[in-house]
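Quick question: what would this complex look like in 3D?
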Amino acid sequence: MSDVGIDAVTYWLPDAAPTLDELERRGALGSAAGTLAGFGFRQARVASSESHVDMALYAARDLLGETDTSPEEIDLVLYAGALTSSTTMECGPAPAGSVLQLRDLMDFFKYPVSRLQSELDLTNAAVAGVDQQGCAAIFSAVRMARATLIAEPDVRTVLCVSADRLPHGSSREVVYNLVSDGACALLMRRGPARNRVIAMHQVTKGAFWDAGSLENEIIAAYFPTARTVIEETLRKAGVALEAIDWVIPHNVSLRSWEILLGLIGCPREKLYSDNIGRIGHTIAADNFINLRDATDAGVIRKGDLLLLFTFGYGLNWSCMVLEH
Amino acid sequence: MNGQSVTPPERRRTILVTGGTGTLGRALVTRFAAGDAAVVVLTRGQTSAGVLPVCPSVTRLRGDVRVGGSLGVTRAERAELTATVTDVVHCAAETTFNRPLDEARTANVEGTRAILEFARDCPRLERVACFSTVYVAGRATGCFGECDIGGEDGFVNSYEQSKAEMEAVVRDAMPDLPIALYRLSTIIGDSRTGCVSGFNAVHHALRLLYQGLAPMVPGRAGTLVDLIPVDFAADASYMLLTHAFQPGRTYHLCSGTTRSATLGGLLDATMAAFERHRPAWRKRSIARPALVELDTYELFVRSVEEAGNQVLLQATRAVQAFAYQLAYAKVFDARHTESALAPYGIDVPPVLDYYERVVRWCVETNWGAPS
């Protein structure tokens, strides 16, 4: 078993928090506000002038500051983006109706992770993007960071960043989930003070790549595969479900979590669900926002076993077990 | 009567069959037609006339048990029938699981009351066979015997309830009429060919699995699922009726404790059959549905209803109609029936011996869709 973990977590969320009723009035919901409220949502967090790169910078800068980590210590940056637009630089003020404003061919070669390295003076860091896995992208970043820390002794500190924002004016509902903008940053090291990664598992089902035309099939596929992935992760970790102290979720609907908990036979009380209503689903940053808040609130304690599960388009199911 | 007389020779048996165009009914009519009896099939319309065997001994009579003791035929036709009928084989039923209870009762309870009223008027009557379902057991769990009545714990759907009420009507009539009751398990197709002559909730659930629209099924992996092939149902009931008739008895035509499949085994066999007979299906990466407790399944159904997703709503309701019964684990005891059939060499085959053929037939015919 490796001794790699997530030593620190920070996140950044926009201040604007329109309620379901406000979003419904703006025409930003597909379902009735009441339906989404019944599924556990209350409000979304919506960025105004901040781009996804800005949000990534804010989260990463906070991380370095909070942990008193000098920029030179970072050996590798993995930048995770769930939306295809998140892996492309914004090349000017975002106009209404679009988050991107690409002007010429060279704009396609401007990368958020390079800008992040530059802005934060991470001069020793190699960089890479992790994308095309929807909301599971940050889990893949953690997986790659862990593998690199195990395989390469000279890599000591890895910064994983995830940042996504929906285009201006777009609907805030995706398949009965309320979507927010937000970013998180993780510091991964060997010998971490907390959050040692015990096991990870991911399943990809590319047959569902065309998410727009397979919504019903995707909803149906979600639950049985989620259970399989969780069970396989626990098997890899050598941990029984009963030993898990907390389930740290992605902030899809509380209802869907209640169903999934029923499927895996986990008591509802073990779900840290405080942020589903308060924050909504920040695409890829949820689990780590929740991990940070649960830590700050004293909900989870040193040594607790945590199960983090997420799901992303593509389709990707990802799960990890951490020892806090 | 379509220009043909139903009057048979003096000593010939005349068998009145209701529901003769249904899955079991038509299989029975075929067997009766192979003998020397005259067979009169009471049918509601022309549309399914083509499914009956073209045979001089089989006549079709337009009528409907739901209209009462007249059976919806003319007075002359009824008089001719009552004078000649020796056997009544009552297969007609509303078998859709989730019809409104009133509709189910009209067909299954009042329809049975009507056929028994008719039977009382038949001076040559020797045998009445009434077909029911083992699922009159309803929400009961454990072992359900041939002498058990069922329903004490309520029912899963209107079909079960109306059939239990129908059985009460039949039992009340047993002192006056030579009636035997045949409780059928779920018929899924022909054990030799896999051919499905009548689709039911099981086949709809199979299609949803194939389409990847069935994320979960209530029940446990070890829950026994009782299914029977139509050829067994027809052979067994034909033999019990014609060679081993015992009025007042109730028979279970089911796979019972030893021939049923487990729910987990059935799901595995289903997925394996899809992959084997439609290799391209494997590429769709459709997951085996999760087996869940009933409360979790109901939460999913409620969520789909609240979301108003029509496709998933129809899918969950279709699964619900069949699968809710799986949450009430039970086995059906058929010892008396097995003893009665043993001298004739009729034995129900294990479900998993022929199940794949049925799935294959469904896949290859696209659930019977016109090519």
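Answer marked as accepted. The longest helix of chain A spans residues 215-237.
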